Amino acid sequence: MNFLQETRLFSALSLTLLELMLIVTFAFTLHVDDERGYFYAHGLYERHLALWKRVRESAGGISLPLGEGTPTLLGGGVISGDGSQEFSPPSARLWWSVLPPEMQNRESAVGVRPVKAADLYLQPVFNSSGGRTYVSFFDGGPRRAAELRLQALTATVLSCALALPLLTWWFLKRGSRLYARVLKEARRSPVVGDVADDPAALIGALHQTNAELERLLLEATTRADDLSALSDTLARNIPSGLMVLDRRDAILECNSRAGDILGIRPSEGASPETLAPPWEQFLALIRSAVEDREARSRVEIRENGKDLGITITPLFTRERQHIGTLVLFSDLTSLKKIEGELRVQGNLAALGSFASGIAHEFRNSLATLLGYMNLLQKEHDAAKGRTYLDAMLREARHLNEVVTRFLEFVRLNAIRPEPSDLAEILDEALEGLRSAYPAIRFVLEGEPVVLPADIHLLARAMRAVAENACQAQQSGDVVILWRVEGDILRLEIRDRGPGIAAEHRDRIFLPFFTTKPEGTGLGLALAHKITALHGGTLEWSLNPEGGAAFAFLLRCNA
Fold first, then answer.
1. Domain count across the chain
2. Is it the case that residue 37 has pLDDT exceeding 60?
3. Residue 504 domain-assigned (yes or no)
4. Could you report the per-residue pLDDT of 378-393, keeping only the tens digit for each?
5. Which string of b and e fits 297-333 if b means at least 16 CB within 10 Å?
6. Which DSSP string corresponds to 73-101?
């Protein structure tokens, strides 16, 4: 008999002995329970005797304290030797009739098991005295339930007792096969192959292998500790707030910078819900990213007097299993303050440019008017005087046009868009230009398009750009072409003029900037503003064929 067979036999005998001990213990438990049942019934018997003693001593008929005690008294009765019977309640007569005859013929009942009658389990207790039989019916439901549990437990224990030897034999058989396979592989190993048949040498080789495994474990532990220390160092020194949630969406890490920004530092294992109040927006953003398992990049919110820039990234394994969520956020309050200051400075600069343009226009016009007025004072010829007055009138009209267009530019803050046909917009835009510039031919290329627009304002913007193209080339073709890219309409107006000088390209959309002697500098500025009010942009580029091209980019989905 080899080592494996000895091990198998010893294990089987040990488990069989253990099983016999369990069965004996269980049988003793059943016996004790049965004894408890006897004493339980015996206690009811004493209660039964005391009950009927009180009934006999009292005057009148049967008066039982129904519903009292534990277990509950359900009823009872007296059966006389002459066959007369008296029960309380009347249904107890039926309960007596369902008792087996051998039980009814007994002089007393002690330890009788519950009897089923209709929907009830009855615990009958009775005795005979003076030619009469006194019976009491107690609630036997609790004892019956205990018996059913005991029966189920008995069946379970017996099933386990039968299955345990078979399972033990099966596991030992599988284990011996595994051991034999491991031993076979060990003989092939250069480490233990030569000593596999020598138990002492095999144990020594296993100790050596175990020492090597411990060394590798120590190296892995050291490496993990180094990585953990590096992670802690990065978390402490990163200038942004860092919060890491685990796969159960509980806070795993929260660095000190996060606590400084939020004013609170949630403890490890806490729920992100501890952030609210006062960070409801921040919490809502985290909650939505966690639920959707989607990243949120560079989201900016303003809450509790602070501007926060937030990036939320779900973390996944290579198998796309979600293992946590990374939340990075920075306090942008100081940057926003600087940005606001720069914006104010930019507005002041723009205001200065506006004022300079207005002053320039007024100064030129006033100088011209004053000059003609001085000439008019010295001139006695009526014909020349009318010439001077006509020139003054033209200059006054120019000044009035500047003021009118400037006021339109300043007051234009809203539009009333409605579905509009692009062809109608272009017809209105080019209506006056065709007669004003007869040497210009407008070439239109594009498919029918409907877009949401304030038709009169958008036509005015396109007219301003088209008029610049006419003034730039005086004759020839001005090409207007458009196409729809996705939901964006791109409409270009191309001329063959001299183009835009390099020194002017950064200022062409500024109010009052013009290179024309008679220009106001408000045409392109007004076109740019109208386009922006439509949610679009106005861009310029150099025409590959020479000249300039202005492109309107507008949404065309209504």
1. 4
2. no
3. yes
4. 655 666 666 766 766 6
5. eeeebeeeebbbbbbbebeeeeeeeeebbebbbbbbe
6. EEEEEEEETTS-EEEESTTHHHHHHTS-H
